[in-house]
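Sequence in, structure out. Go.
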Amino acid sequence: MSMLFVNGDDLVRTRRPVSTADHQQNSWLARLGRWLACREQRADLRAIADDPHLLSDLGLTREEVLTQANMPFWR
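Output:
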């Protein structure tokens, strides 16, 4: 029998219950991912701080860019 025609109620549930530890680990990993992305974005801002054309495209001043780039990655 093709899986396309199997009744969804007949399928065996194979997922295990999610524990509190799983949620804590997932939130920790998500936070780490956000921190790494933020750190990378701020490094990119530092890289464009001296390019007036890119700054004007963004509508930002050099000082605004450097202020954002120098903030800690966890903020």
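Check: The radius of gyration is 23 Å. Residues 24-75 form one domain.
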